[in-house]
Amino acid sequence: MSNLVESDLSNNQINSFTGNEGLKSLSKLKIMRLGPNSFKNASILQSLGALSSLRELHLQNDYELMRGLVTKKDLEGLANLEELYLDGSSIDVSFFHNVGVITSLRVLSMGHVEFKGRLPNQGWCELYNLEELDLSENGLNGTLPWCMRNLTSLRYLELSFNHFTGSIASSPLTSLTSLQYLSLSHNDFVIPISFSACYNHSKLNLISGDHNKLSKTLSISIIPRFQLKVFTLSNCNANQFSERLFHFLYHQHHLIEVDLSHNNLTAGGTFFLSWLLANNTLLGFLNLRNNSFSGPFPFLTSSPYNITKSIDISNNHIHGQLPTNIGSIFPSLRYLNLSGNELEGRIPASLGDLHSLWALDLSNNNLSGQIPQHFAIGCSSLHFLKLSSNNLDGRMLPDVVNLTDLEFLYLDNNRFEGKIPDSLSTASHLTALDISNNNISGNLPIWIGNIHYIEVLVMSKNHFEGPIPAEFSKLARLSFLDLSNNNLSRSIPSCFNSSQIQHVHLNHNMLSGPFTHTFYNCYSLVTLDLRDNNISGKVPSWISNLSSLSILLLKSNSLEGEIPVQLCSLKGLTILDLSQNNLSGSIPHCFGYIPFKPMTTKSFISDSFGVVDWRIYFVFYVVMETRLFNNYNTFGEKNEEFPLKVGAQVVEFTTKSRLYAYSGNILDYMSGVDLSSNHLTGEIPSTIGNLNKIHALNLSHNNLIGSIPTTFSMLKQVESLDLSYNNLSGTIPYQLIELNSLAVFNVSHNNLSGRTPERKAQFGTFEESNYEGNPLLCGPPLCNSCTKIGSPSTLPHHSSKEEGFMHMGVFYVTFTVSFIIAFLGVVVVLCINPYWRQAWFRIVETYGTSCYYFVLDCFFKPFNRRGV
To answer: 719: closest CA among 664, 650, 653?
Structure first.
């Protein structure tokens, strides 16, 4: 193969070359690709030195390749090499000291090579012909070595995702006047806000300085000579330098991409936006997201911007109405994000002229009216539509739509009414649908079961009624279902057994009937919320099949029977609420062996799900002579992650005597058990003290007996402990004062005795109401003094909650018996003694006569005076 010019042996398991004579015969070989393979050390470089014509060498992702010492002897044979790619390998620092022997090198790419520490100040800076250098995604730190001033031919420099420090104004970069591409993002550089230090960089086309620090500069009047095409400076907290930043940008006229997002910029307002669009006719991507711009949306009257593809000015203070002709101003727009502003008025129908529109987000504004018919028909390429949190009304969608490619639809938190239109059934690729918190009514459409791609379905807080269609069981990809706060009735379909579903919220409805085998095969289920329904029967024993279950909320139903011990098999359980049911029996001892350890899988939807590649980011390659930038004026697409926050996972749980809603990261750290308001009996298992990760424990309003386990002192994380309204006896364990996180403690209305815990730490905050209803308790904050109250053995003991009162049945019996005995005693005495009998009759006769004349004088005398 003596005429071989290019060879690709990548993705094999080659570990060496045996002999160099064969390689010498490949005298015309110029390009060789060898990564990844199984080369163990740098000796492979010495072997490749036999290829006298080799100009381009690829050894990417060979993680063991460069471990160990790299000598000049290993590299001398590659003296004619022009391009070397070692990305993803493991580079030893010795490589930098010796790579200077490859004097012809023009391209050196070493991204993500695990090189850490500072760049050396010798060896590699002798690469005077170097034009492209990539050191991104490493652990490099410190300032840039001054020897880099020697790299005067450098045009492409990529230093992103390191830990470099120092000011750009006093770095060797000021001497690299041939630079065209400069990426400094995700470092700790101090970047001068005016870029006057780069005054002589007339060839500079791209500056990327995201996630760095900005500084004031003295010579702000010096305007750099370059004309940028790409400028990104996001997440630099530029608010205190905003007016200086605008001064610099007002002299740029060839911008293609601008990203100043997440900076809290205020100065200039929408005037700056208008100026950018009017003076940079090639502007394709503009991102001013998450700043403090104010003013009305700019009304542009110039010719259409055919190049503009993406505009994001979300999370600002833009107000007023959208231009009615916005569709003709940006006819090629593919992504428009105006969410989180103060826009008002109606949605312009001209948006329907944007036939290439891929994503539209107008959420969190004050828009009103209905969704225009022309918009629903014209935006045939729409994949993402978010109109959440506005004042939109009328029907959800017009009767006729052309949204067949729609994947994500969010219309939540509006005032839509009526039924779900059947026109939505044409969106067969729908992946997420959120119409929560509206006034939509009627039955749930059966055709939703035919949308096989749907993963998120949120229809809570509406007025839906009737049963849950059995067709929902066809949604094999469904991961999140929220039908809560509606008027749904009947039983949950027993065929609802999706193996993919993770979160189910059916709370606050009128669902009834037993569990049967609903959710029997839902092995991925993490959250099951059925609170506030009429579900009856027993908690099913097959619930142990739900091995991933973390949150189980069955509060306020009609469940009965004992708590199944199978719950103890759910080792991932973190929040359990069985309160306000008719459960009986004792608390299973095995509850103490459930870890109840918070898990990060609970929040799910709030920030982790909904990460969708939706932002269309058009990369306009800069005009350069190198092969890296020869595609100018061609549009590419770059995906960026964006949290949709679809149907946020919200869990309500009672703790600290209040109902709290947990979501997001807070939910990930919450754990608790609520078994209150049932008919549980027996003693509290001492093993409950093993639940040292829970934050709330509520066993109140039951019939529990026995003492409070001393093991409760191990509940180090507990913030709310409620044992009130039971039949607990004995003393309050003094060890409980060790619970430093305890904020709410309630043992009222029991049969506890002895002294209250010492008023120190958290127990110093508890009041009398926390202990009331225990007459045998003494000590502060109670009024009972432990020196005055009798000992427990001498005081009456009451075993019920109605202690201090006689049983009414006993009272009636004793009263009747006493009355009969007294009456018979009087009769017997009168029969035996005649004198007492005569005296008794005279008394009766005298008092009878007196009563007769008293009644006659009071009630009949007035009538006699009138002659009646």
So the answer is: 653
pLDDT of residue 791: 44
The pairing of beta strand 181-183 with beta strand 558-562: unpaired
Structure confidence at residue 570 (pLDDT): 93
- What's the CA gap between 382 and 375, in Å, rounded? 10
| pLDDT at residue number 838 | 73
Sign of CA dihedral 215, 221, 224, 229: positive
Percent of the chain with pLDDT over 90: 55
SS (H, E, C) 546-598: CCCCCEEECCCCEEEEECCHHHHHCCCCCEEECCCCEEEECCCHHHHHCCCCC
Burial of 360 (0-12, 13-18, 19+ CB in 10 A): buried
Contact residues for 689 (Cβ-Cβ < 8 A; gap 6+): 592, 709, 710, 711, 712, 713, 714, 715
Q: How confident is the model at residue 269 (pLDDT cuts 50, 70, 90)?
A: low
The answer on pLDDT for 276 being more than 90 is no
* Residue 196, Cβ density class (10 Å: 0-12 exposed, 13-18 middle, ≥19 buried): middle
pLDDT at position 344: 96
Is 464 within 8 Å of 435 (Cβ atoms)?
A: no
Contact 54, 81 (CB under 8 A): yes
- Identify the weakest region by mean pLDDT among 31-35, 236-240, 418-422, 748-752: 236-240
For residue 459, the one-letter residue type is: M
> Which residues, listed in sequence order, are joined to residue 575 by a DSSP beta bridge?
551, 672
Q: How far is CA 764 from CA 141, 405, 695, in A?
A: 51, 63, 20
| Nearest to 509, CA basis, from 471, 552, 466 | 466
Distance (Å, whole) CA 35 – CA 518: 52
Give the integer Cα–Cα distance in Å for 861 and 752: 67
Is 189 exposed, middle or buried (CB count within 10 Å of its CB: 0-12, 13-18, 19+)?
A: buried
pTM score, two decimals? 0.81
In this predicted structure, what is the pLDDT of residue 604?
A: 52
Q: Are 367 and 346 in contact (CB under 8 A)?
A: yes
Across the chain, mean pLDDT equals: 84
pLDDT of 123 over the 60 cut: yes
Question: Tokens 């045998």 correspond to what residue?
Answer: 776
How many C-beta atoms surround the C-beta of residue 730 within 10 A? 14
CA distance 214 to 238: 7
Assess whether pLDDT exceeds 80 at residue 498: no
Model pLDDT for residues 408-429, shown as the tens digit of each residue: 999 999 999 999 999 999 999 9
Neighbours of 472 (CB within 10 A): 21
